[in-house]
Task: inverse folding
C-alpha cells in the first residue's frame, strides 16, 4: 500500500509539474504603444496610451486573446525619424505582436519598415501623410486616421461653400506637409471657381511674422489658409488680430491642440480647422466614456481612434496565424470597435474616414454646423 501511495503521489506531482509548465509556457500577448510622450505633442501621446490601455483592460476582462492576458509597453518616439526607428526595434525586441500609435509621420514611416521586417501588425492612429500606406512597405501596416490629401479637399469644399467669389490667401511653413496642404487646397479651390489671391511661404519658428502679415493685409483677403503647425499658426493669428485684420483663419488639425489656444489666446476665436469625424454617440462608446470619466480624461478623438485601433488589432490577433492572416482579416472582414465596424482598403487606409470642420469658441472647439 505504501508503494502504491507513493506511486499515486508521484503521478500527482507529475501532473502538477506538467500543469505548471503548461501555464508558464502560456506567455502574455504584448502590444506596443508608441507616440510622443513629451514636448509639444504630449497630449497626443497621452491620449494614445489611454485609449490603448482602456481597450486592453476591457479585453482582458473578457479573457484576453484566446485565454492569454494582454500586456502593454509604451515608448516615446519624440516625433522623430531616428527615434521612431529606434523605439520600433526596442518593441520588436520585447516580442510585441502589434503596435498602436506613432502620431507623427516622421516617426511612423521608418517605424513601419521595422515592423514590416519584424512581422508585427502596426496601426497608426494619427500619421496622415499618404506615404505611410502608398509606399506599401508591408501588408501589416494600417492607418486608423484620415489621409492628409483628403484634408485639402475638405478645406477646399469649405472655402467653396463660404468664400466663393472672395479672395483667399494660402500660406505655409515650407515643410512637405504644409506646402502640400496649401498647394493642394489652393488648386482644388481654384478648380471649383475660387480666387487665390496669394500663395506665400514663411520661415517657421519665428517669434514674429510681420512681413507675412503685411502681405496678407495688402492682398485684402477674406480668408487665410495656414499650412503650418500650431505654434506658427498662433503667431499668425495673433499678429493678424493685432493689426485689426478680420479675415477668417482656416487651418489643419494641429490647430486643435491646446498649445495653439494657449499661444494664440483670444486670437484663436473663430479659427476653423478640420479633424477626422469621430462619432462618439454610438452605443459602443458608452463604456469608454465612463472609463474616461473615472480617469478624469476628456473624450478626445485620439483616445477613441486609439481604442478602436486596439480593438481591431486584438480582433486580428485572436484569429491566430501569421501577420498575413491578421492583415487579410482586417482588409476582408474588418473589426467591431467603439467607432462601429472598421474596415480597411487594399493600401491599409481606414475606409470610413472623413473630415469635419471644427471652430474655436471661447476655451473649447466645437463642430461647425
Result:
Amino acid at each position: 500500500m505504501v508503494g502504491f501511495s507513493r506511486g499515486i503521489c508521484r503521478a500527482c506531482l507529475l501532473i502538477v509539474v506538467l500543469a505548471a509548465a503548461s501555464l508558464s509556457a502560456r506567455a502574455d500577448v504584448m502590444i506596443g504603444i508608441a507616440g510622443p510622450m513629451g514636448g509639444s505633442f504630449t497630449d497626443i501621446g497621452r491620449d494614445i496610451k489611454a485609449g490603448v490601455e482602456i481597450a486592453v483592460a476591457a479585453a482582458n476582462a473578457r479573457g484576453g486573446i484566446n485565454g492569454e492576458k494582454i500586456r502593454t509597453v509604451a515608448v516615446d518616439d519624440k516625433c522623430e525619424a531616428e527615434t521612431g526607428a529606434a523605439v520600433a526595434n526596442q518593441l520588436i525586441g520585447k516580442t510585441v505582436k502589434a503596435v498602436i500609435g506613432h502620431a507623427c509621420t516622421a516617426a511612423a514611416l521608418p517605424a513601419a519598415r521595422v515592423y514590416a521586417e519584424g512581422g508585427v501588425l502596426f496601426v497608426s492612429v494619427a500619421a496622415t501623410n499618404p506615404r505611410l500606406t502608398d509606399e506599401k512597405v508591408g501588408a501589416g501596416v494600417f492607418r486608423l486616421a484620415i489621409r492628409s490629401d483628403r484634408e485639402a479637399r475638405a478645406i477646399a469644399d469649405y472655402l467653396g461653400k463660404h468664400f466663393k467669389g472672395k479672395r483667399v490667401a494660402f500660406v505655409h511653413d515650407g515643410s512637405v506637409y504644409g506646402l502640400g496642404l496649401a498647394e493642394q487646397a489652393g488648386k482644388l479651390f481654384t478648380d471649383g471657381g475660387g480666387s487665390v489671391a496669394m500663395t506665400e511661404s514663411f520661415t517657421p519658428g519665428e517669434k514674429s511674422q510681420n512681413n507675412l502679415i503685411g502681405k496678407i493685409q495688402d492682398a485684402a483677403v477674406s480668408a487665410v489658409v495656414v499650412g503650418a503647425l500650431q505654434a506658427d499658426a498662433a503667431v499668425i493669428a495673433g499678429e493678424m488680430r493685432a493689426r485689426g485684420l478680420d479675415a477668417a483663419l482656416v487651418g489643419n488639425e494641429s490647430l486643435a491642440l491646446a498649445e495653439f489656444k494657449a499661444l494664440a489666446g483670444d486670437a484663436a476665436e473663430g479659427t476653423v480647422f478640420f479633424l477626422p469625424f469621430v462619432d462618439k454617440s454610438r452605443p459602443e462608446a458608452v463604456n469608454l466614456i465612463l472609463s474616461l470619466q473615472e480617469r478624469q480624461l476628456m473624450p478626445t478623438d485620439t483616445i477613441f481612434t486609439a481604442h478602436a485601433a486596439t480593438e481591431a488589432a486584438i480582433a486580428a490577433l485572436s484569429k491566430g496565424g501569421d501577420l498575413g492572416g491578421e492583415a487579410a482579416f482586417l482588409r476582408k472582414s474588418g473589426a467591431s470597435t467603439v467607432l462601429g465596424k472598421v474596415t480597411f482598403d487594399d493600401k491599409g487606409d481606414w475606409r470610413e474616414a472623413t473630415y469635419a470642420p471644427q471652430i474655436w469658441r471661447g476655451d473649447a472647439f466645437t463642430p461647425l454646423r
